[in-house]
Every structure is written in C-alpha cells, then in structure tokens.
Amino acid sequence: MAVLLLAQHTPLTSELTIYTDSQYVINSLTKNLRKNEDSGWVGVSNKELLLPTVAWLRSRTAKTCFIKVKGHSGDIGNDGADRAAGEGAEKPSATLLNLLVPGPLKTHGMRLSTVTHLVYKGIISMHEQKER
Predict the structure, then answer these.
(1) Rounded distance, CA 111 to CA 37, Å?
(2) Which of 11, 77, 82, 125 has its CA at a distance of 20 to 30 angstroms from the CA of residue 25?
C-alpha cells in the first residue's frame, strides 16, 4: 500500500527511491512481474494492490529505484513506516485508495505462451463442445 501511495503522490517527472524491508514487494514489482503478468495474475497474492501499483510506476517518466533495508534495525525511515502501518491498522475505518488501473496500462489476461499444452487443449475442447 505504501508503494502505491508513493507512486500516486510523487510527481511523475521526479526521481523516486523507495526504501523497504519487504523483499516480497521488491520481487513482486521487479523480478516476478513478468511471470505474474504472463499468468494473468492468477494465484498472485495482493494483486488488487499490485496491479494499480505497477500501472502508476509504469506511468512515471523519471527513474524509480527500490532499496532493501533491514527491518527492525534502528533505521529511522523504516521504524517510522512500521509505526505508521501500526497506526493505520488501528484506525476504525479503512483509508480509501485509488485502485483504478488506467485502460492503456491494464494487462489483458494470460500470455498464451505460458499456458501449458494441456490447458490449451482443454480450452479448445470446451470451445468445440459449445459449437456443437
């Protein structure tokens, strides 16, 4: 959620460095991104936050970097983020987030090349049965 808010509130032409103790977040938005998109985000946890985050990050024209920091290690920024997350969790009502993904940045399902031969055959079979 924090990365989405940063991407939404940082000018698109300003460089953005995101410090996080979450290797999951970094990997989801970098290393695993293509695999997740190719699979149509099927089975991906937190896709409702990741999809708009990817869209906002892609809309940026300036450099965006992720830096991994050690959690609970006395890092002022990381400790402050943990406090803010704890305060957010205690709020009586949820903060409204803009989770809309602009049309041009939407992914359109699975990449056919990632679908196994068996699944492809099953889709063809179901289609043929509907035509009968």
Answers:
(1) 8
(2) 11
